[in-house]
Structures are given as structure tokens and as C-alpha cells.
Design brief:
By secondary structure, this protein is an alpha+beta fold. It has one helix and eight strands, in the order H-E-E-E-E-E-E-E-E. Strand 4 (about 60-70) and strand 5 form a beta hairpin.
Length: about 140
């Protein structure tokens, strides 16, 4: 009887260990924005942060970012994500001459987005994570 109980406990432990990573997979997607960005004399804007995603088997995943300052708003690049469950750095850079940005307070809206095949074969975006963050442009 003790052997049977021990085997049952061992089997339950193995099953739990196998299922636990799957249960956490949905929680693995995340995105952050660093509290600063850079602005060069030639109007090059660089924004950065970190992301984590677990699975890109349904389609490629990208980190996009938009910089907002006053009434100005512009998309700042896009980075292809590596979805392996680990935390990675993202850096997006664009030259934005119109509207021109100034050093100082701004806001970044970043998105972790996956493209999947839609009903007619066209890519359909799916949003895995979104982040809005105040930043300081230097």
C-alpha cells in the first residue's frame, strides 16, 4: 500500500511539473518602457524598454512604439521580438523631422503585437501587451 501511495504521489508531482509551465505561458507576455529616450541634433529619436513573450508559432511578434509630446505624435520604429519566455531589450529608432520633438517630458505608447493569418490570408494583428509610460527626452 505504501508503494502505491508513493507512486501516486510521484506521478502527481511529475504531472504538476509538466503542466505548471503551460499554466504560466499566458502570463509570460509583458512589456515595459524605459523612463527616458534620446533625441539627437538630426532629429533621430530612440526609445527602449524590455519585453517578454512565450510563443510566436502563430505568427511574428513585434514591439512598436509611438512618441507623444504636446500635440505631436509619431511612430518610432518597430522591433521583431524573440518569443522564448525570456526578457529581452527592445530599441526603436526613427528620424522624425515633422513634427520635431524637443528635449523634455513626453509619453511613449508601446505595443507587443502578433501578426496571424486572417480568414482571407491577410495578416491580422493580435495585441499581447500594451504599455503607456511617461519619459524624459534627452
Amino acid at each position: 500500500m505504501r508503494v502505491r501511495t508513493a507512486l501516486t504521489t510521484l506521478a502527481a508531482g511529475i504531472l504538476l511539473a509538466a503542466v505548471a509551465p503551460l499554466a504560466q505561458a499566458g502570463e509570460a507576455d509583458g512589456l515595459s518602457v524605459h523612463g527616458y529616450g534620446t533625441l539627437t541634433d538630426d532629429s533621430t529619436v530612440t526609445l527602449s524598454g524590455t519585453y517578454r513573450c512565450a510563443d510566436d508559432s502563430a505568427g511574428p511578434v513585434f514591439v512598436s512604439s509611438t512618441l507623444v509630446q504636446g500635440n505631436r505624435s509619431a511612430g518610432i520604429g518597430g522591433t521583431r521580438a524573440v518569443c522564448d519566455g525570456e526578457t529581452h531589450e527592445w530599441v526603436n529608432t526613427s528620424v522624425v523631422k515633422e513634427p520635431a520633438y524637443q528635449p523634455g517630458a513626453a509619453r511613449v505608447e508601446a505595443t507587443l503585437m502578433q501578426l496571424t493569418a486572417g480568414a482571407m490570408g491577410l495578416p491580422t494583428p493580435g495585441f499581447l501587451a500594451k504599455e503607456k509610460s511617461d519619459v524624459e527626452l534627452y
